[in-house]
């Protein structure tokens, strides 16, 4: 006798905040979908304010390609340029470029947060930029 497949949970809205301020889980993806994401180590070369956005830094990073890459990152409230320049970070290297308030961003840095961006609640939001625990060359693959 065969059993019916277990019901799958309904997809959650991305970054939706629960009453406790924590983010709802995002929908399941396949391994093949995850394998499309190109995560790389990059070293922050410079960090300047975005000219048209108070919450964004405009970062120039060495991604190992030989040509600096510009990334706009919404971490200005959490990090100073001195905390970022020279630091190794993890980036999504194959994210389609996007113009953010007039500046092209060619990737995304990875960061963890204790509450979602739209999380209402009493818990102050912390943001932690992710990077390798030991020095490794820019362009190194994260897997």
Description:
This protein has 143 residues and is mainly beta. The protein has a domain at 35-133: Nucleic acid-binding proteins (OB fold (Dihydrolipoamide Acetyltransferase, E2P), Beta Barrel). It has 2 helices and 10 strands, in the order H-E-E-E-H-E-E-E-E-E-E-E. It has helices spanning 31-35, 81-84, and strands spanning 39-49, 57-62, 69-73, 88-92, 98-100, 103-105, 108-109, 111-113, 127-129, 141-142. Strands 1, 2, 3, 4, 7 and 10 form a 6-stranded antiparallel beta sheet that branches. Strands 5-6 form a two-stranded antiparallel sheet. A two-stranded antiparallel ribbon has the order 8-9. A hairpin with a 6-residue loop joins strand 2 (57-62) and strand 3.
The level of helicity is under 10%
Mean pLDDT: 88
The beta-strand count equals 10
**What CATH architecture of one domain would you give?**
Beta Barrel
Whole-angstrom Rg: 18 Å
* CATH homologous superfamily identity of one domain: Nucleic acid-binding proteins
Q: Main sheet?
A: 6 strands, antiparallel
pLDDT < 50 stretches: 4-15
> How many DSSP helices?
2
Kindly estimate the percentage of residues that lie in beta strands according to DSSP. Answer: 25-35%
| Overall CATH class of one domain | Mainly Beta
Structural class: mainly beta
- Helices and strands, in N-to-C order? HEEEHEEEEEEE
CATH topology of one domain: OB fold (Dihydrolipoamide Acetyltransferase, E2P)
Distance between the termini: 41 Å
What is the overall shape? globular
């Amino acid at each position: 006798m065969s059993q019916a497949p277990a019901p799958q949970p309904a997809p959650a809205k991305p970054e939706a905040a629960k009453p406790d301020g924590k983010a709802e889980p995002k929908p399941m993806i396949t391994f093949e979908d995850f394998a499309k994401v190109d995560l790389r180590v990059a070293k922050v070369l410079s960090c300047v304010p975005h000219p048209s956005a108070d919450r964004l830094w405009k970062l120039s990073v060495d991604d190992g390609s030989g040509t600096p890459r510009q990334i706009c990152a919404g971490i200005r409230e959490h990090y100073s340029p001195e905390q970022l320049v020279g630091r190794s970070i993890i980036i999504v290297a194959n994210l389609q470029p996007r113009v953010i308030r007039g500046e092209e961003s060619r990737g995304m840095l990875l960061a963890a947060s204790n509450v979602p961006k739209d999380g209402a609640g009493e818990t102050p939001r912390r943001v932690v930029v992710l990077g390798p625990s030991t020095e490794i060359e820019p362009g190194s693959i994260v897997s």
